[in-house]
Amino acid sequence: xxxxxxxxxxxxxxxxxxxxxxxxxxxxxxxxxxxxxxxxxxxxxxxxxxxxxxxxxxxx
Length: 60
What we know:
Blueprint: E1 6-7, E2 17-22, E3 28-35, E4 50-56
């Protein structure tokens, strides 16, 4: 899996929606966080984890 669409904790969310926490190698954990566009992504559960947008918000 590529790292193209992975975001680091603390980075501002480019889009509002559900972000899945990924492991250090990019594999999904099944844990999601809801983040609003422009807000920083929350701290991960473990070191090395990042976020992947899985379900963008469909409203404006």
